[in-house]
Amino acid sequence: AAIGGGEGITYAQFLSERGTIEADVTVTRLPPRALTPAVAAAADHPSFLLVATDSAHRHVESLLHAAIGDGHHAFVTDVSGALAQINVQGPRSRDVLAAPLVDAQQP
């Protein structure tokens, strides 16, 4: 995926040699020092959060490890156990998500 210089989220796909889809993911470019001490130590390098489906995350992790070539400096860490994601979908999802969510308002 071509991720520009600013922060943002990009939908991307891993393709096989034949052009078939191996996995689809979202890639978020993070601000410096956003995720882990390892990222903070490398603050002059871009950092990303890649989200894959639960059923494919191990496959995506192995694709990422295979893509890191010699001479590249990259970390791949599975943070599935530390983060959660809730999907809100449907025709009124924008309306539901338009109101700010505050931790204090949640049970």
TrEMBL record:
Organism for this UniProt entry: Calcidiscus leptoporus
Record lineage: Eukaryota, Haptista, Haptophyta, Prymnesiophyceae, Coccolithales
Q: State what protein this is by name.
A: GCVT N-terminal domain-containing protein
Which residues fall in a coiled-coil region?
Answer: none
Q: Which InterPro entries does the annotation name?
A: GCVT_N, TrmE/GcvT-like
What domain of life is recorded for the organism? Answer: Eukaryota
Report the residue ranges that make up the GCVT N-terminal domain in this protein. 9-99
